[in-house]
Amino acid sequence: MKRLYIYLLLIVVTTPFAFSQTGNERIFYSSYRPQGWDIWIADSQTGKIDQLTDHDALEYNPAISPDGKWIVFTSERLGNPKIFIKSLDEKSETRLLINHDSSMQDQAVISPDGNWIVFTSTHEGQSDIYRLPFQPFETLNVADAINLTRHKGGDFRPSFSPDGSQIIFSSDRNHPIKTHPVFVFAMRRTGDVYSMNIDGENLKRLTNNDHWDGSPCYSNDGKKIFFYSGPRNSSRIYSMDTEGGNQTAISPEGINANSPSILNDSTLVFTSFQNSEFRLLRLNLKTNQVDSMFNSTSNFLGAKANKNGFITFYGGQAPSEMAYNLGGFEGDLLVKGSPYSIDLNANKVDLYAVRRAFAAPPNPTDHTLIFDNTEVRGLSDAMTYWAYCLIVIIIIYILFLGIGNRNLNNAKEKPGAFLFFNTIAVAILALLVFVLYYFFLDQLAPINTIRVYLGVVALFLAISIGFTHKKRTRTLFGQLRNIMLFNLASTLFIIIVLPRLIQIPIHFYEVNYKTNEVTSIYSFIKPSNYNPLNGMVIDTKFNPAGTDLIYSVGNFRGGPSNQGDVFSLNLSSLETTRLTFSDFNDGFGDITSDNSKIVFRSGRSGFFDIYLQEGKTIQNLTMDEHRDNFPIISPQGDKIVFCSDRLGADIEGKVKTMDLFLSFLNKDGTWSKPKRMTDDVGQDAHPHFSPDGEWIIYSSEEGGINDEEPLVQSVIFGPQIYGEIFAIHIDSDKKIRLTHNKWEDGAPLWAKGIGKD
């Protein structure tokens, strides 16, 4: 009986702990990572192609050892990119060659004598070039490697000279960061080709151009260097001598070319990206003729030729759009291999990479994500039959002009009357088109605002009709009255049907990221005064309790006066609540655990400021001319973090870089002056609190880029706008880099643990 009491006591004591146990906390972040790459090898003589790897994770950048026995390549099967090795002589298992817990290793090459392996790594922060003895039967550690470049810029794509004494590579070290030509907040870089001795000494800059010069390789005799250069998506292959002289384009103009590799004295292979497809092409160095290497529908890229006639490359069939990732990147919602865990102080946190431009937010209470999607891919998809009525109006208008000119001709009016009639008619139509285009399409103004401007046009037309009616005895003014009557009728018609001209339906879906089961849960209905073109949903997140979805709708790349608001969706009742009320650019809202405080960004002062809303009280926290954005409030409501360009670096006079700033709630209820949390040369943005409010995670460009920019991202954004995911502990200022890779990682969200995951 005594033993039974002891067991019961143990059950009573341990039960609260058992039921309170949760799994690791979870961080979800957006990733521009592709999907579906494996390692391939081809015999250049026979054309036979073999697939060497078949793994769910991305695998790329293969290279064969000079003796033809080994192939090394990069794999993301462990999370961050690592270098693996596989024997080509026998059917051996793929195994890890170079290891490190956090940093990435990539772009490996082996010296011609087989003694050394050189690769890139973020082991010391930026992408540098490292050297280790090549020991294929050992597992090497990057901590034992020699850093050959040690520069705050990024160094990429090393390649050996035929005698093994020199290494050539590309680097962005001597070019300033530039703005993107379309999205000025996105930073872009420029690279040049450099050479150095195998020990890192005798560094020489070989190129100095306005575009990226990259992926250099030697000719077989070591007398020439080949590389790609040129504007993005229209680069060409160039040759130069080993000191950088005689730079000459050798590939045809109009064929996008990069990643050159010499096959033999007369043939060079390269990658071409055209029409959203990667293809491997051959360049005849004697005739400059180009043809395809393989007849394949797969995306193949990154070819490297070996002196024994073998060519390695990577790629495969492009993925298709999936129901559980509509509107995201084609393929799976989560990156293959997600999640992987990282130590954050004494706790483990699981990291999930989500293949969307913004991370689909995780529900804090279960294994589901929410994402939005619209089938509209262009203006023509959004036009309704009411919009096509405008075409009928224009046709009738042209008919009216023809009748008017005919009547004037029959009345034998002078040429001046014809000119006056046509000028007035075209001017009135141009005025109507301008008002409709500028306020409806360009400014995306609220519907009632557009109606006011159209009403002014209608009033002007009504007055003009009255004036011409008084001159009704003259044919000219009679025709002017008719054209103005038609314009008035058209304007009134547009005022009435304005919200119905364009329809962009927005649907929300819930997906279980463990089973990929997807459910359509809600369709967003815009408020009556909303411009129908304001169909973009952005910055979706859950409130800390997981009961409501917080999201922004509007024109968020527009100015302060553009329309935008923060909404919430209760997932139980599916009721939508508008949280901000203005005709200005409100967005990027965040809410406390008790739903008592809402922080958001607004342009209602004429500048983008941070506002705090408590009940009906709204407080402007940053009333100045600086651009503030992406505010968040701690679940406890005592801290606010936002990003701002107030102390940022000016880039080309077009944009200032953003840093993170922190404000505390004082005991007297006021908020402290913003304290700068980050200070680096790039962009810092998209902060988010940990569930306990003690950490901040965010996207940062601090680590630079980890590969040549033209090779990484084929979409309109350049790679790594903000780069990687970092975490800062607020009290200690301890900073931890959470991701190391070459892809664009951004918009992180931190959710609590929910049991065994």
TrEMBL record:
Residues 188-304 form the Prolow-density lipoprotein receptor-related protein 1-like beta-propeller domain. The keyword Transmembrane helix applies. The chain crosses the membrane at residues 385-404, 416-440, 452-468, 480-502. Keywords: Membrane, Transmembrane, Transmembrane helix. Gene3D superfamilies: TolB, C-terminal domain. It holds the Pfam family PD40. InterPro entries: 6-blade_b-propeller_TolB-like, LRP1-like_beta_prop, WD40. Signal peptide: none annotated. Belongs to the TolB family. This is TolB family protein.
